[in-house]
Amino acid sequence: MINLLDPNNVITRMFNSERYEDMYEYCKDLLLKIPNDMLALQNCALALIYLKRFDEAITYCDKVLSINSDDNFAIKNKIFALEGLGNYSLVIELCDEILKKNPRDSWIINSKGLSLNELDRHTEAIICYDASLLLDPKDVTALMNKAISLSHLKKFEEAIQYYDLAQKADPSLKEIPRVKSQLFQKLGMEENAFLAAQGILNADMEKIKQEARENKCTLFHQVCENEFKKFEKNDF
Question: How far apart are CA 159 and CA 126, in angstroms?
Answer without folding.
Answer: 11
